[in-house]
Amino acid sequence: GQQLNQSPQSMFIQEGEDVSMNCTSSSIFNTWLWYKQDPGEGPVLLIALYKAGELTSNGRLTAQFGITRKDSFLNISASIPSDVGIYFCAGNNNNDMRFGAGTRLTVKP
Amino acid sequence: GAGVSQSPRYKVAKRGQDVALRCDPISGHVSLFWYQQALGQGPEFLTYFQNEAQLDKSGLPSDRFFAERPEGSVSTLKIQRTQQEDSAVYLCASSQLDGIQETQYFGPGTRLLVL
Prior knowledge:
The complex is a heterodimer. Chain A is mainly β. Chain A has no helices and eleven strands. In chain A, a hairpin with a 5-residue loop joins β7 and β8. In chain B, a hairpin with a 6-residue loop joins β7 (65-68) and β8. The model of chain B has no long low-confidence stretch (mean pLDDT 93). At the A-B interface, β4, β5 and β10 of A face β5, β9 and β10 of B.
């Protein structure tokens, strides 16, 4: 089963709003990653975090690697309709990667 | 450039039938991973190869599941005597080197439905 607790499970927001989702674990991870999965496709990497406390941005996306190595968050600013999809957090230790259950994001125009 | 490709994209099997799912990793990628993704869930690890060596198969749910990568490139995941609970998306991912920080790139998946 899933080892990472990802929340919220789903979000319904208006275009232009900011979004925040997070992931926690009882285990420490060396790397935290955030993926987006569109229907019928595989997950696509958005951001990878390699150091505790690291804050990384990729366009409108910002993610942080928690200082305890047991959590991470992803923020999306000024959401647009193409942000719709399922966002997964993942923790990785030496090729042992575990995923959260996903946050399903719906953006209303 | 060419990413990870998987075939078939969709497979419908009758219960008890054997199936074989193919993964073509990104050229030159050393590591290859198989995941199973149930509906509404995140991917779950099945097995991992470094070149042709299967280094971890702890996620394979039963001895009906078998994976191989004989020449260190293309990999095949075989499921024998399929059961309805095997219905899921099977994802393949590859990464460039066997290192701590290597990023895994995913294929589109094979959607298996067992009737």
